[in-house]
Amino acid sequence: MTRYGSGKSVKRVEDDALLRGEGRFTDNVRVAGELQACFVRSPHPHARITRLDTAAAESMPGVVRIVTGRDLADAGVKPIPNSADFRRAGGKPTATPPHHALARDTVRYVGEAVAAVIAASAHEARDAAENVVVDYAPLPAVVDAVAATQPGAPSLVPEAPDNIACEMQHGDRAAARAAFARAAHVVALDLLNQRVAANPIEPRSTLATFDAASGRLTLAASCQTPTGLRDELCGVLGIPVADVRVVVGDVGGGFGMKTALYPEDVVVAFAARALQRPVRFTAERIDELLGASHGRDVASRAELALDADGRILALRVASLANVGAYATPAGVVIQLLIGPWVSTSVYDIPTIDLDIKAVLTNTLPAGPYRGAGRPEAIYIIERLMDAASRATGIDAIELRRRNMVRPEQMPYTNAMDKTYDSGQFERVMDRALALADWRGFDARAARSRGAGRLRGQGIATFLEWTGADVFEETVDVAVTGDGRIEIFTAAQAMGQSLATTFTQLAVDVFGVDAERITVRFGDTDRATGFGSAGSRSLFVVGSAVRVASERTVAKAHELASHALEAAAGDIEYRDGVFAIAGTDRRIGLFELARSQAGERIALQSTSAVGAPSWPNGCHVCEVEVDPQTGEVAIDGYWSVNDVGRVVNPMVVIGQLEGGAAQGIGQALCERVVYDAESGQALTATFLDYAMPRASMMRHFEMTMDEATPCLTNPMGVKGVGELGTIGATPAVVNAVVDALARNGFERGALALQMPLTPERVWRAMQR
Questions:
Q1: Taken in order 74, 75, 78, 79, is the CA torsion positive or negative?
Q2: Which residue of 51, 552, 607, 641 shows the fewest CB atoms closer than 10 Å?
Q3: Closest among 681, 685, 687 to 284, alpha carbons compared
């Protein structure tokens, strides 16, 4: 038996089943008589469909049905929702083509689904899909946001001849113009946050089953937001939410990519209802790289105005965000609103002028990817801070120190009207500098020089916003007479150790052995809520678990008062036992549950936290660059992270390291590429899309600073899941730029754009 609560590095309760091969991923769920779906995808970035002939494919072995866009239209299936919350210039609504689950008349990106073959086996479905005949009339295409906004560029929808789906301006343009006019120093950078793919180890998988007797559809899916998936699917199919159940087992990573309703989900659900047979789709990697939403892809012109003492007067950024062929709700809000919320980061910047345009292109629709808007914004300000240091001659650390929001300014409202409840940014930075031995860099650079390498150091001081703007959660708790406590929540585990941390929080309250507690997820018949995204699971849902556990003990306290025939004020609870103070009269929690109707004490609790949390950190990176090849090696990476109170240090460090690895991947190697001339996707497999590797990183050291608890939730915790990703990218890029700039290659260094591949770095040195 194990007794542990929060604050300790305990082993994950999830691991035993996973290590034994007993995980329950969607593709492990097998149903008798299930059919397999394979999708016919467009080879063109933009084209009219002139003929779709399924006759030959329908006659092939094992084929049960072929579904087309016309079939969905005839059945009344609606388009997948697009963004409707923003406006074009002049106040007109967002302009975007309708997003049909299967293209009807026009395809708008390579990989867009045109038809689906439903067959007895995956092999038969694939063979038949190759025999579906589709004739296309190609149309002009554009895959780059900057090119898409130029005069004469091909347009994706008549309502947006300039391809601008919608746009938003934040701040005070006139005040910013005045600040730049009086500034002693102005720095400007053209920055590209390139398009990347999430690539969770488990690809998407959906199994739809239909029960004719009840008329209910059950969707087993690999998903982060089961309730959202159910609700969107019901809206598209036009059926009541009571008629659909979504169940989610183990999820092998999501990173934001698995928060959306995808065309494949709609088609297998439609087919299962139409055929009244189970239908499955399991993506292959090419399906993911062509069809699962991409992230980032923002081109920015960024400027910083400073006075003679290095104090920031204003920040001005004009960005074009490539949202792809369809302006999805998440793809738009991430760039037009969420990213700007953190644009001033940990700095006291009084004036901003942000102009962001969501641009339609012939590429896969963009959506959330770990950090979702915050990495783009932090990358911009941290690159500007280093550029300002060079322009002013003020040391990079001193410049940051002069401009940081001070603890006595808390609660601090930034220029986007967002309020930071807490933070000691200078303290966190100083701890990181000490951890990384910042002042000892010159000696290490000399050793690198002796080995024929160029050494650079980079830093990122930053914060982020967490909570996904949904701060309420419902949790069900049941104490049973057989000695168990079951906690059910609409949050979704996907590798972030939620069962472990929620168990630790419950042990804090119930005081029983951890083995008695079971945490369950992923069933919309049991619990509904937002799910897991935006680093909200511990901050929002963990707080709700804590509150629900406390309320359950309080309810049991009242029951114990009746059972022991004593005033509630005379009864104490400790370690699973209610006792009358000063006597030996007592009753155990589970014994009390056995005495109740149904032999259980059950409670449904809804609670909310007051506002977002603002985790922050300082990440330091040192790199070595091979001047002969341009290859970059991360020789050291250190970080101090303020995530408030830490429930499980081991889990937090794992989250920080994994997040940083993804940020490093974007900095050094990852990039989704569409050919500018043909519109073809050139990175549709792992042969062409480079993923981060362990060999890139020689030394990782992540630590936490718990001196500043969050004030907006009862536990004092802050989100952590995306923090590592947000800090890593600018820290690494700043280090590479520093390595080149301090060794005579400043001109080429300042022109570098991610990813910093060996070829790009080598070419920068040739300038």
A1: negative
A2: 51
A3: 685
